[in-house]
Design brief:
Layout: H1 2-10, H2 25-41, E1 46-52, H3 56-62, E2 68-73, E3 77-79, E4 82-84, E5 92-102, H4 113-119, E6 120-131, H5 140-145, E7 150-155, E8 172-177, E9 180-186, H6 194-205, E10 217-219, E11 227-228, E12 234-240, E13 243-249
Parallel strand pairs: 1-10, 3-7, 4-13
Antiparallel strand pairs: 1-2, 5-6, 5-10, 5-11, 6-7, 8-9, 8-12, 12-13
Helix pairs in contact: 1-2, 4-6
């Protein structure tokens, strides 16, 4: 199963027909982790994880009862101001997130929001760059096997150390596409508090005998809806109190 889906992905077939509708969620995660192992075997470095479907409305829409996860590779990291070649991407889009760095290991089950808050060592404003390589809604399990649409993650200036009175739930973001304000949102849209998504992640990883290691970066899940982009788009998302993050698509 893992080798079949991996081989298909290497040929640019990300939702192979022979596996459509056949994977359970647990099998999908086993495939995803198997894909990660293959990336690492060829020299890629994992730097963290992403959390998706953190908004209740998205969970209802997709027919799931909890968020989902994916992995982040060092090769996917990009600095604010990056210019992507649109032709190199597959139906790209972006989400507006916080990139959280943990300074201590978090081992589930039973990780609490308070433990996460104490462990977070740095925060950066971020864009997750996604690719719609298949029909996410039609086959969520296969989408998870394909690392939940992950392509890259763009980060702005990192804040560290963090102010003692910082509340991630009070973070705000305003999204601009080609200079036009599109949306405003707050950190409370992410499970009430982005720290809650990290706690969920740590506890979910325990099901696979994994933990969040010190220094790992976690993409929190989007404060806003997902946006598709077209060639020539210029994106800027301004996070308070963390600052802006930008990406262009040419």
């Amino acid at each position: 199963m893992i080798e079949s889906i991996w081989s298909s992905a290497q040929r640019g077939i990300y939702y192979p027909r022979e596996w459509q509708g056949r994977l359970s969620m647990q099998e999908a995660y086993r495939v995803q982790l198997g894909m990660l192992a293959r990336y690492r075997a060829r020299g890629e470095v994992q730097v963290g994880w992403k959390v998706g479907l953190t908004a209740k409305a998205m969970q209802v829409q997709q027919g799931v009862h909890e968020p989902v996860l994916g992995f982040l590779l060092e090769s996917g990291g990009r600095p604010s101001g990056i210019v992507f070649r649109f032709a190199d991407l597959i139906q790209p889009g972006f989400e507006n997130e916080l990139c959280l760095t943990v300074g201590a290991p978090l081992q589930g089950p039973g990780v609490t929001i308070e433990e996460v808050r104490a462990a977070i060592a740095a925060v950066a404003p971020a864009l997750e760059i996604i690719e719609r390589r298949g029909d996410f809604a039609a086959d969520l399990s296969l989408a998870l096997a394909d690392n939940a649409q992950q392509k890259a993650f763009v980060t702005g200036q990192t804040m560290s150390p963090l102010p003692a009175d910082l509340r991630l739930s009070e973070t705000t973001v305003e999204v601009f596409v080609n200079g036009r304000s599109m949306e405003r949102a707050s950190g409370a849209a992410v499970m009430g508090d982005p720290a809650a998504s990290v706690a969920w992640l740590a506890n979910k990883l325990a099901e696979f005998d994994l933990r969040l290691e010190a220094g790992m970066r976690i993409m929190s899940g989007s404060l806003t809806k997902q946006y598709l982009v077209t060639r020539g788009d210029r994106v800027e998302s301004r996070f308070h109190p963390f600052g802006p993050v930008r990406a262009d698509f040419e």
